[in-house]
Design brief:
Layout: H1 15-20, E1 31-37, E2 41-45, H2 46-62, E3 70-74, H3 79-90, E4 94-98, H4 104-114, E5 118-122, E6 124-127, E7 130-133, H5 135-143, E8 150-154, E9 174-177, H6 178-183, E10 201-206, E11 216-220, H7 221-235, E12 243-246, H8 253-259, E13 267-272, H9 283-291, E14 295-299, H10 300-308, E15 328-332, H11 338-347, E16 358-361, E17 363-365, E18 370-374, E19 388-389, E20 395-398, E21 412-416, E22 426-427, H12 432-442, E23 456-464, E24 471-476, H13 490-500, E25 505-513, E26 522-529, H14 537-550, E27 559-562, H15 576-583, H16 600-609
Parallel strand pairs: 1-13, 3-4, 3-5, 5-8, 8-9, 12-13, 12-14, 14-15, 15-16, 26-27
Antiparallel strand pairs: 1-2, 6-7, 10-11, 11-22, 17-18, 18-19, 20-21, 21-23, 23-24, 25-26
Domain AMP-binding enzyme C-terminal: 497-573
Domain AMP-dependent synthetase/ligase: 27-345
Pfam family, one: AMP-binding
Amino acid sequence: MFPKPTFFDGCELSFAENILFPSSNPEPNSIAIIAATESTREQVTWADLRERVRICASAMEAHGLKKGDRVAGYLANHVNAVIAMLAATSLGALWSGVSPDTGVHAVLDRLRQIEPVLLFADNAVTYNGKIHETHSKVSEVVSALPSVRNLIIFETIPGHAFDIPSIQKHPGTTVETYTSFLSKGDSTRPLRFAYLPPEHPVYILYSSGTTGVPKPIVHAALGTLIQHKKEHVLQCDIKPGDRLFYFTTVTWMMWHWLVSGLASGATIVLYDGSPFQPHKEMSMPLLIDELEINHFGTSAKYLSVLEQAHTLPREASPKSATLNSLKSIFSTGSPLAPSTFQYVYKNLSPPAPHPGVLLGSITGGTDIISLFGAPCPILPVHAGEIQCRGLGMAVKAFSADGVDITETGQPGELVCTVPFPCQPCMFWPPGPTGEARYRSSYFEVFKDPKTGHPIWHHGDFVRFNPSTGGIWMLGRSDGVLNPMGVRFGSSEIYNILLEHFKKEVEDALCIGRKRPQDTDEVVVLFMKMAAGHQFTPELAHRVQNVVRKELSARHVPKIIDECPEIPVTTNGKKVEGAVKQIISGTHIKTSASVANSACLEWYREWARTH
């Protein structure tokens, strides 16, 4: 598996062409993309999309962009982001996107490593009903990137002023509007594509970087394309003309997964804004009805928020939502609690005679830009489980000493034992440094018991259900709890809180603490209280009693305390590893990838006083 073997050696393809000209051959005047914000809608036909990519690619070519160059977007989730990506990849350049809510330090942690020559940014963005300036952040970013030859500003908010002359930049950088940029291209240049080997890179994504500088993970054209089409068509039952919406930013791998829906002939829906605007918890259900969305993807956290708020779309007032267009709901980012499965089927799945939705809890990651655990339209759904392994993915559970325990039902480490096309083609930079990063990330923990060759260690803690073939996600490996030698995942505790304490506890962080002077690990549970509820010793005792009853005495948190905030990544995932290190006495410099990193000081103070 390392070095990655070459699939389809000798072939050539264009990633962008496969996205723009799917085999289903949609009508040129049918809708390819619907872009929505909290207050606006835009529809783009296939013909319009191809023409806009043609014009953008011509301008990129006129600005000297060539195969292997990097193009970055510091962008919101809108049509122009997709167009810039497709134009860049049509020429053989690499695309890397970072959302505008990302801080300057975190942006530079990423883009400095890949040295983009073109940088696209927005003149402003909207979120939660407000316009947010981008000028100062964009200026700081471009001033620290001497590789950037051209900074191009999209007029994302029409008429909003963006003072180009005051942008701080290097002498070799030109700053211009998107209109000016396009005017430099050859208006007669046809839409054409660079045909390149399957392993030619198209995307650069990044590891979470919660405890260090994010690692740039590079994905190739063929692996990304064939994996996404397999998942969309076979595992998710997405058909030509279906409307696919995943709530995501351009940073998250799910944006790339969403955009690939075009290759299956689907209409994709882009959304930029808060999922709770303009109609609070009803915002997304109403959008689903309005746009007749068939496949809705989101985070497990979002669905649990609806559950905790007792959101009942069909009974809501003054506006209700039938959700009759829905075929599927996809959930990822963290394990989906069994109680949330029940909530979705009771309140979000339309009643008979509608056949009901397929609730697909999925898992994979930036590392593979796709899924290890996937949905399946012809298998039953079991609460708390991911339905099955992805087709062609040799996924198993290994014990800590490298024994295959998949069929035992015991919890273990998620591994993949056979090469697969969507493995990263490299880590940036090319050469020994990137190779060392790649190897150390996945291939230094387990070996194949038969061959002795290194196999993929994903860093997730899971167990397989021998009777259903389903997968229980138990959390990240670095968040595995191990009191008295019993290993279990934090999600088991979170599920208990969501099922039994959803009114009192808004969120929680469950981690293990083992300081140098400790002989055993102690389970610590931090709880953020819901509005109107107070933390008390009595509540802590109730939580301990329910955990003991529902799980076991060894699962019971020894320490339960209130916290003001739960640290999360920019993608909304809980930062268990960093807090575990903090309260265990390991001094780390936390990356800017922690979206609310200021709250970590509270945990440092807690560690000093407890």
